[in-house]
């Protein structure tokens, strides 16, 4: 399986098809029994774990918010080079800027651990903004927009897909996300069953076609 630099990829499949296992392979939590995972032109198994963690940012469905201000949460990891303009842009792309600006203390609003004062969708969008501010060139979103309504999710996914400087991988349980990417990987029984664009895969009348029409 090869994911090219700056690709926008969706990984889809039925429950139990191997999506979670593939994520662990991508972040080198598991080693493949055979074959290779080529990401941005590099074989994942040949990259040391520290370097890999720097270049790949995994954003889970359940984000973790620290007991700190919103700005401190966004700057997590001593990102001293990040400017206020960078923060504003990331929050705009993640569609969380309006919510923050409505708060009395805005970016200096103190959050408790796990961000319990925020809604699930706000926590997800804040975590996505934090990921956009990271130096990672590869972002893996694992159901990271599940708490958003359909309209907000569409706009956010469109913003992410339009980015030209990141490789973005969506573990997509909502096939509406897959339609917006330039490459779709279909898993079945732990294997890559099909790859291609949304239109090409529909024309094949295979596993992806069945997923869309199920």
From TrEMBL:
GO molecular function annotation: ATP binding; ATP hydrolysis activity; ATPase-coupled lipid transmembrane transporter activity
Keyword Metal-binding: no
Keyword Lipid biosynthesis set for record: no
Ranges where the ABC transporter domain occurs: 1-214
A single Gene Ontology CC term: plasma membrane
Compartment list: Cell membrane
PROSITE patterns named in the record: ABC_TRANSPORTER_1 (PS00211), ABC_TRANSPORTER_2 (PS50893)
Coarse class of the protein's main subcellular location: membrane
Key words, A-Z: ATP-binding, Cell membrane, Membrane, Nucleotide-binding, Transmembrane, Transmembrane helix, Transport
Pfam families xref list: ABC_tran
Gene3D superfamilies found in the cross-reference section: P-loop containing nucleotide triphosphate hydrolases (3.40.50.300)
Record membrane topology: Multi-pass membrane protein
UniProt protein name: Bacteriocin ABC-transporter ATP-binding andpermease component
């Amino acid at each position: 399986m090869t994911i090219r630099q700056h690709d926008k990829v969706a990984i889809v499949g039925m429950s139990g098809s191997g999506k979670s296992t593939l994520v662990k392979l991508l972040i080198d939590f598991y080693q493949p029994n055979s074959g290779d995972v080529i990401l941005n032109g590099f074989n994942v198994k040949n990259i040391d774990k520290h370097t890999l963690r720097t270049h790949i940012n995994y954003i889970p469905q359940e984000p973790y918010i620290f007991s700190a201000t919103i700005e401190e949460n966004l700057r997590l990891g001593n990102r001293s080079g990040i400017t206020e303009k960078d923060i504003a842009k990331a929050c705009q792309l993640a569609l969380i800027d309006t919510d923050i600006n409505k708060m009395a203390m805005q970016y200096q609003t103190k959050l408790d651990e796990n961000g319990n004062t925020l809604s699930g969708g706000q926590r997800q969008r804040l975590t996505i903004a934090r990921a956009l501010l990271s130096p990672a060139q590869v972002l893996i979103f694992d159901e990271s927009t599940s708490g958003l309504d359909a309209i907000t999710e569409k706009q956010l996914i469109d913003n992410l897909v339009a980015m030209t400087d990141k490789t973005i991988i969506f573990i997509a349980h909502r096939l509406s996300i897959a339609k917006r990417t330039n490459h779709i990987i279909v898993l079945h029984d732990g294997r890559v069953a099909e790859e291609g664009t949304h239109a090409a895969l529909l024309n094949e009348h295979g596993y992806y076609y069945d997923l869309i029409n199920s």
